[in-house]
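Internal QA ticket QA-208
Title: Verify multi-chain structure generation after dependency bump
Assignee: T.L.

Test input:
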Amino acid sequence: ETGVTQSPTHLIKTRGQQVTLRCSSQSGHNTVSWYQQALGQGPQFIFQYYREEENGRGNFPPRFSGLQFPNYSSELNVNALELDDSALYLCASSLAGENEKLFFGSGTQLSVL
Amino acid sequence: GDSVTQMEGPVTLSEEAFLTINCTYTATGYPSLFWYVQYPGEGLQLLLKATKADDKGSNKGFEATYRKETTSFHLEKGSVQVSDSAVYFCALSYIGTGGFKTIFGAGTRLFVKA
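Actual output:
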């Protein structure tokens, strides 16, 4: 059984650029959610995808968008990067109906200069 | 709005001491409550959960009881070990009109000394 994997592990971008982060769900999981974790803070919920559609969203602007693919892998896209977007981005997968049992990846550390 | 507040750290204890990490919440719905743990160099992992009032979640000697009347979900362990040193996050989740929602607290770092 493979766990949740995220790529890349580290990324450096400049303000105004666009970035795509990737996540492969744990085997058998059909729901994926994304989180932003600033240094010293708890994860903040960005959105969740189920059956390739957004299934819930936190307080993030539209420049944060996502995709879920038929194989349940997922992407997080962030347009017009701002300095405050620098953070650890976490992906978590779960089974539909078992949202409380999240399995997290190790994250992508994004630095915006 | 919905929120989770947990005690600030770091918390430093000696081995075999009693641990309490306080967590309170506000929510418009009827959330499930969780404790997640992040060991050094590792990803977040679910420690325990409770899905309704008066439920007690337990795992690895840790316990927390869902107290609706005090909107609390305090984490306790009777005798901590050095290996319990980690960051602990309290969280809630529910399905609302806008779909799935989850909120994490800021985390409490625990250091256990031998």
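Spot checks passed. The mean pLDDT of chain A is 92.
Status: verified.
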